[in-house]
Specification:
Structural class: alpha+beta
Oligomer: single chain
Strand content: 5-15%
Radius of gyration: 17 Å
Low-confidence stretches: none
Mean pLDDT: 82
Strand order of the largest sheet: 1-2
Distance between the termini: 32 Å
Number of helices: 2
Number of strands: 2
Length: 74
């Protein structure tokens, strides 16, 4: 199979998708990912920025969420 494209983006994290979105306004863009967009660290918010933003929130909740998600990726 031959695929013609102007730009090939390898990866589907947030940076790759944002770059693809911008470049797609001017070029033919193809994205290659290891399995699916939902399997990326960005989709699962790993490596993202988390912050306590309310009185009901606590840093321990963020730690527990990160540990739970990282264990489910195996």
């Amino acid at each position: 199979m031959d695929v013609m494209t102007d730009v090939l983006v390898i990866g589907s994290g947030i940076a790759a998708l944002q770059a693809s979105r911008f470049l797609g306004q001017h070029f033919q863009v193809q994205i290659i990912t290891k399995s699916s967009v939902k399997m990326s660290s960005s989709y699962r918010a790993q490596g993202g920025v988390a912050a306590v933003t309310s009185q009901e929130d606590h840093p321990n909740f963020h730690i527990a969420d990160t540990l739970n998600v990282s264990c489910s990726n195996k």
